[in-house]
Amino acid sequence: MPGPESSTEVSRVRAATGSAKKPPPAPRSAARPGENTWTDFADARARAYLDHAQSVRGEVRFQLVTRALTRILPRRPCRVVDIGGGFGRQAVLLARAGHSVVVLDNDQTLLQAATDQVAAEEPEVARRVSLVQGAGEQAPELVGTGFDLVCCHSVLLYLADPGPMLNALARLVRPGGLVSVLTVNRDSLAIRDGLQADWRGALTTLLESSERGGRYLPTRADTPLELGRRLTRLGVLPVEWYGVRVFSDHRLSEPPPEEFADLCELEWQAGLRDPYRQFARLFHLVARREPESGLRGEPLEPPLAP
Predict the structure, then answer these.
(1) End-to-end CA separation in angstroms for the chain
(2) Please, what is the angle between helix 8-17 and helix 108-119, to 10°?
(3) Helix, strand, or coil here: 238?
(4) What is the pLDDT of residue 216?
(5) What pLDDT sits at residue 50?
(6) pTM value?
(7) What is the DSSP letter of 205?
(8) b/e burial code for range 72-90 (CB count within 10 A of at least 16 → b)
(9) 54: left (phi over 0), alpha (psi -120 to 50) or beta
(10) pLDDT digits 0-9 by tens, 256-277
(11) What dotted CATH number matches 34-289?
(12) Angle between helix 56-72 and 89-96 (nearest 10)
């Protein structure tokens, strides 16, 4: 696995972003189409996301996604856009691998954290990353099109209607290019509460197919099959999907640093295989845009070969 850079890297990320200065006022952005539960709870979301992204559990997610992308990306520098990637961690990992990354995010707090994180990198890495404030649905107008890779990680869960965002992703990617989507797995929603012995919470989630209660802000979830079908209708065909955080999502304590590499390898191997990947908290779907748009068939359903 490229990395995993050990959990000492988590400490480095925390140091780079923990003392973020208050950013200057930004121009007012256009409203996003449809209900967006990130903007409805922006301050709470940003604080919670920064805490999560700088944890070992968050770093496991970044390492697994980067490994999957490295596995399928061309072995040359690529043009990448990361929609909703305001924290900047994914952009930094891709930039370290030689790719040029544009981060587009509407959240000023996260963009400031990304600014601090990028500034902590070596100059040749930092200059490969650029930050733009704006709404993902408007990305083609804000950053252009023709990207080799379009990332949209932990974004769809905040959108009541992901359609406009998915349309933007399909427009951003070049023919033959890749779209990478990471989101919450609806088929495993009750597992976290159940493994943490929150029996009532798990039961409610299981019966309602959505997380309820004071510990969760409103979100939505998808399945690989349903998301794959939606992308297919846009001419973006699923190539493969991975489970992300099968064994570590429910843990309230962080593992010791010396166990981080083993944890990442375990999660990687489980995320490749059925039935394990079906129980992951998140799923990572990678799809490729066809030369022409239009329905091309059903998304990938059989298990991947390890």
Answers:
(1) 14
(2) 120
(3) strand
(4) 61
(5) 74
(6) 0.83
(7) H
(8) ebeeeebbbbbbbbbbbbb
(9) alpha
(10) 889 999 999 999 999 999 999 9
(11) 3.40.50.150
(12) 40
Helix, coil or strand: residue 90: helix
Between 146 and 38, name the one with better pLDDT: 146
The helix (run of H) or strand (run of E) holding residue 44 is: helix 42-53
Q: Which of 285, 180, 298, 294 is nearest to 233 (CA)?
A: 294
Residue that wins the pLDDT comparison between 209 and 163: 163
Could you tell me the two tokens for 177? 């290019």
Q: Where are the domains positioned within the chain? A: 34-289
Residue 286 tokens read as 């990678």
d(CA 38, CA 22): 20
> Which residue type sits at 160?
A
Highest averaged pLDDT of the listed ranges 6-15, 45-54, 283-292: 283-292
The C-alpha atoms of residue 299 and residue 297 are separated, in whole angstroms, by 7
The candidate with the shortest Cα–Cα distance to 89, out of 56, 41, 44, is: 56
**In angstroms, rounded to a whole number, what is the distance separating the alpha carbons of residues 1 and 102?**
25
